């Protein structure tokens, strides 16, 4: 994964103004980073990243902050306020246009789309980045980056998860046969991303790539499901 994208001076100033408003109003309004996190559907750590200028604000996130602090978005981000005004004008012309919410989850170490491979620890403080998505998952959800080619399906076959794609893993979701999952062994110090299947009376972790070099892995007593893959998307910098 590439180095975290640096925020612009304007984005850092937005965060600075937002944090000042939060610090001045939190006692009077009886709010905390945890209450704002509940409103946003993200973790307290992610809220802290917005306040401290580690993650850039966007319109949906700014709207929730403004509501919680009882201020206008323009009080901390004039540029996002103009963006939201543009949305409002567009929605006046098209009142049926839906409002799209964004949810943010931490990005942890790369997952090997192959045999079990060693990874870093899954603790929020070790997050490499915070990635937004329209998919609402549990508070335990996190992103991993696919490494390797075993989950790249043959041309024309969907779904496919090429190297570099991000997958959202939700440990609170039940995994059934036919689902995509991340599984771990050795106390989750080694993980793999595969399709969970039942075949010939056994449970298997199956690749999508039909190249003989990529083999199914027997899911035995040494393995456990870490979480179900509920979303996949490319990193934003892929198209920048």
TrEMBL record:
Lineage: Bacteria, Pseudomonadati, Pseudomonadota, Gammaproteobacteria, Enterobacterales
Entries under InterPro entries matching the protein: Cro/C1-type_HTH (IPR001387), Lambda_DNA-bd_dom_sf (IPR010982), LexA-like (IPR039418), LexA/Signal_pep-like_sf (IPR036286), LexA_repressor (IPR050077), Peptidase_S24_S26A/B/C (IPR015927)
Annotated organism of origin: Yersinia pseudotuberculosis serotype O:3 (strain YPIII)
Domain HTH cro/C1-type span(s) in chain numbering: 18-76
Gene3D superfamilies for the chain: lambda repressor-like DNA-binding domains, Umud Fragment, subunit A
One protein family per Pfam: Peptidase_S24
Protein name, as recorded: Transcriptional regulator, XRE family
GO molecular function, one term: DNA binding
């Amino acid at each position: 994964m590439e180095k975290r994208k640096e925020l612009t001076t304007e984005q850092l100033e937005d965060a600075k103004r937002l944090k000042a408003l939060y610090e001045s109003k939190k006692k009077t309004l009886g709010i905390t980073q945890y209450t704002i996190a509940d409103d946003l559907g993200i973790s307290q750590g992610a809220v802290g990243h917005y306040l401290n200028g580690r993650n850039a604000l966007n319109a949906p996130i700014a709207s929730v902050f403004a509501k919680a602090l009882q201020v206008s978005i323009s009080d901390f981000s004039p540029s996002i306020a103009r963006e939201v005004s543009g949305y409002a004008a567009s929605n006046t012309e098209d009142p049926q246009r839906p409002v799209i919410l964004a949810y943010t989850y931490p990005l942890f170490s790369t997952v090997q789309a192959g045999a079990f491979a060693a990874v870093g620890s899954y603790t929020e403080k070790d997050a490499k980045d915070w990635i937004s998505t329209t998919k609402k998952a549990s508070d335990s959800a996190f992103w991993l980056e696919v490494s390797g080619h075993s989950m790249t399906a043959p041309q024309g076959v969907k779904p496919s998860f090429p190297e570099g794609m991000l997958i959202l893993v939700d440990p609170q979701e039940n995994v059934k046969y036919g689902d995509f999952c991340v599984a771990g062994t050795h106390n989750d110090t080694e993980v793999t991303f595969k399709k969970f299947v039942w075949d010939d009376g056994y449970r298997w972790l199956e690749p999508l790539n039909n190249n003989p070099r990529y083999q199914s892995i027997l899911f035995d007593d040494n393995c456990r499901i870490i979480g179900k893959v509920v979303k996949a998307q490319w990193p934003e910098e892929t198209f920048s």
